[in-house]
């Protein structure tokens, strides 16, 4: 009866998962900077010899374009929304031989492909721990797969938007995890790199992550399995792991690096939204559109049913996903998760170290933080 009550309690929480239009609580105070920009533009034009009448016409045209035309285009063009959220077209460096991950400095690694659903292929890398003896001549697919069940911890890494699994800061993290003697599985969602070129949305990328997770889970045996998400990948990870916990197919731990609480607050807080965020109808134009087009990531709701250890990492100088959004997600976890479950842990990093959005991996204390978290993942 107790088990039945617990399941019913979780199912009730699932009903809250429908992405809701969340008006941001994190409003920016003042608007002096925007006023200064307009005044500087007017002064520049006047200095160039423009008449006051022509300056006024230009400013009116710019205002109509910026605050009416562009918001309407964004609201009613799902293709633009998907590409701005996921940025799959940003690829730096431009050419990577994904079939040979060792060519980008990852020894003991291989490339392979998994099918997420009919017609959708995902490019995947498996990277071995540093202490595995790679002198063996047997480097077959079977040999690589067997290593995943050697009782070393396996990390399934879900990257954020833009670039691909070969992004420089991501490779830096793989080296960090290799030195901890972890196995790493990393992949590209549809629309990225050498995966099938289809426009992603929330449902699709979570399905991609689930396909890779199922493959890894089947191969790991008794090895610990930790899901690690970064940036937008934290939203995908939270959605994935929430579903897995409800299914009873949970991993052993969840690490969220530089996460946001929900996409609505993130859009408003993102540097790209600076021009528009003081608009009276900002949420109607920008965030409600994401909800309707399957881009409504709500980690602060999904985290309420994640009943495994959670570690949140965030740097105070992160301008892409502000530190306060990571704190908001942690507070949501503290308020909504059962006190009987393993606690969520929040670790902040001071701005003076310059880790920003991508380089928490460089923190000297991070190995100890991760090891202690691994010990909690039973």
Poorly predicted runs are none
Measured on Cα atoms, how large is the radius of gyration? Answer: 23 Å
**Averaged pLDDT, please?**
89
SS class: alpha/beta
Report the sheet with the most strands, covering strand number, pairing sense and barrel closure: 8 strands, mixed
What is the share of helical residues?
40-55%
What is the structure about, briefly put?
The protein has 378 residues and is an alpha/beta fold. It has helices at residues 2-14, 32-47, 52-75, 78-86, 141-147, 168-179, 202-220, 232-247, 263-269, 282-292, 299-302, 323-336, 366-376; strands spanning 109-117, 120-127, 154-158, 183-187, 225-230, 253-257, 310-315, 344-349. It is built from 13 helices and eight strands.
Give a verbal description of the structure:
The protein is an alpha/beta fold. Helix content is 43%, strand content 13%. It has an eight-stranded mixed sheet with strand order 1-2-4-3-5-6-7-8, with helices on both faces.
What order do the helices and strands come in, and which of them pair?
Layout: H1 2-14, H2 32-47, H3 52-75, H4 78-86, E1 109-117, E2 120-127, H5 141-147, E3 154-158, H6 168-179, E4 183-187, H7 202-220, E5 225-230, H8 232-247, E6 253-257, H9 263-269, H10 282-292, H11 299-302, E7 310-315, H12 323-336, E8 344-349, H13 366-376
Parallel strand pairs: 3-4, 3-5, 5-6, 6-7, 7-8
Antiparallel strand pairs: 1-2, 2-4
């Amino acid at each position: 009866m107790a088990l039945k009550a617990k399941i019913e309690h979780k199912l009730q929480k699932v009903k809250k998962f429908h992405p809701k239009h969340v008006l941001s609580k994190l409003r920016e105070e003042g608007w002096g900077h925007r006023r200064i920009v307009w005044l500087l533009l007017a002064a520049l034009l006047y200095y160039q010899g423009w008449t006051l009448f022509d300056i006024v016409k230009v400013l009116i045209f710019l205002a109509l374009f910026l605050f009416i035309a562009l918001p309407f285009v964004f609201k009613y063009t799902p293709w633009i929304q998907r590409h701005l959220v996921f940025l799959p077209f940003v690829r730096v460096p431009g050419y990577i031989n994904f079939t040979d991950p060792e060519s980008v400095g990852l020894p003991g690694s291989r490339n392979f492909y998994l099918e997420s659903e009919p017609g959708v292929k995902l490019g995947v890398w498996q990277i071995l721990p540093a202490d595995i003896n790679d002198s063996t001549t047997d480097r077959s697919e079977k040999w690589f797969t067997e290593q995943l069940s050697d009782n070393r911890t396996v990390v399934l890494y879900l990257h954020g938007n833009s670039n691909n699994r070969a992004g420089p800061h991501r490779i830096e993290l793989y080296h960090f995890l290799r030195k901890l003697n972890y196995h790493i599985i990393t992949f590209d969602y549809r629309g990225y790199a050498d995966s099938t070129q289809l426009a992603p949305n929330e449902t699709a990328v979570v399905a991609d992550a689930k396909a890779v997770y199922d493959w890894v889970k089947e191969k790991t045996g008794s090895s610990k399995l930790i899901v690690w998400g970064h940036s937008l990948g934290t939203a995908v990870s939270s959605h994935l792991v929430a579903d897995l916990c409800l299914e009873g197919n949970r991993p052993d731990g969840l690490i969220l690096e530089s996460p946001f609480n929900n996409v609505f607050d993130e859009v408003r807080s993102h540097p790209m939204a600076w021009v528009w965020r003081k608009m009276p109808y900002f949420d109607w134009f920008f965030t409600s559109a994401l909800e309707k087009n399957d881009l409504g990531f709500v980690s602060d709701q999904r985290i309420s049913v994640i009943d495994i250890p959670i570690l949140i990492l965030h740097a105070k100088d992160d301008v892409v996903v502000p530190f306060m959004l990571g704190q908001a997600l942690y507070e949501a976890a503290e308020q909504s998760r059962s006190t009987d479950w393993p606690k969520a842990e929040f670790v902040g990093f001071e701005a003076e170290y310059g880790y920003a959005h991508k380089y928490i991996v460089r923190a000297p204390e991070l190995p100890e933080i991760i090891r202690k978290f691994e010990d909690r993942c039973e």
